[in-house]
Amino acid sequence: MDYKAKYITDDIKLSCYDDKFFKSDIVFEHHMLVWFISGETKIVQADATYLFKKGDIFLIPRNQLATIINYPKDGEPHKTVVMHLSTARLRDFYARQDVKIQPFASQKILCYNNHPLLESCLSSLIPYFEMKDIPEDIANLKITEAISILRTIDKGIDNVLANFEEPGKVDLVSYMEQNFMFNLPLQKFGYLTGRSLTTFKRDFGKAFSTTPQRWLTQKRLELAHYQFAEKKKKPIDVCYEVGFENLSHFSYAFKKQFGYSPTQLLK
């Protein structure tokens, strides 16, 4: 994978992948505002799958689990401008605003495709990536501009950006049943369910009568079997979407579990 990144600050970067594809399971620490210059991205969440391409603009809320698969497209690399809207920066911004937020139960990816104000704001960053020693106040102004535009075009965005709560303790069974396909460290699963690693393992054992790794592998293979049998998906797609990192390891585990390979099942 040939990856290049240019930074204006830690919160604004130009990201470029030249290779065939890049895949990662991730939970976002900050809200991420993304503008696509070229390429294609598939984002798989527990209850939705998104496909983004050249010209698209979207916001990924923080603390959301997702599988990210980046592809070059039409001979061009996968290239995006990414702006992090950090909690610290948003706290500072909203300290000067008089807003009352409403409970926001579902934080899905928010799409602002081809919006002229956002596109103008983000595209104006391109010249700065070729320069050095950009004053910090310029970058701060650009992020403040982006936040202000979001608030202008999306009247519900304050419920997302001004919500600074950390994950609380949630029902472990329902959360894991919904998010088992994301290949994250157990510590991160613990954080997202409001538990320390020790408490997470203890509660998991009580709930499922097995270890997290054994249960996760079993659930991912069962989902893969369904994707092959009912959806007729390709092994390379299923492998990454159900939480495996390597196709050969996935095929080995699948055959060990079911007695036949994915290719045999598809035939």
What does this structure look like?
This protein has helices at 87-94, 116-123, 136-153, 158-161, 172-179, 186-192, 197-208, 212-231, 235-241, 247-258, 262-266; strands at 3-9, 12-17, 22-27, 31-38, 40-44, 49-53, 57-60, 65-71, 78-85, 110-111. The protein has 267 residues and is α+β, with helices and mostly antiparallel strands. It has two domains: 3-161, Jelly Rolls (Sandwich), CATH 2.60.120.810; 172-266, Homeodomain-like (Arc Repressor Mutant, subunit A, Orthogonal Bundle). The strands form two sheets. Strands 1-2-9-4-7-10 form a six-stranded antiparallel beta sheet. Strands 3-8-5-6 form a four-stranded antiparallel beta sheet, with no helix packed on it. Strand 1 and strand 2 form a beta hairpin. Helix 6 (186-192) packs across helix 7 (197-208). The radius of gyration is 20 Å and the shape is globular.
What would you report as the Rg, rounded to the nearest angstrom?
Answer: 20 Å
Contiguous low-pLDDT stretches (5 residues minimum) are none
What general form does the structure show?
globular
Q: Could you give the order of strands across the largest sheet?
A: 1-2-9-4-7-10
What is the CA–CA distance across the termini?
Answer: 32 Å
CATH architecture of the largest domain: Sandwich
Counting helices, strands and paired strands, the structural category is alpha+beta
Helix content: 40-55%
Tally the beta strands: 10
Number of helices: 11
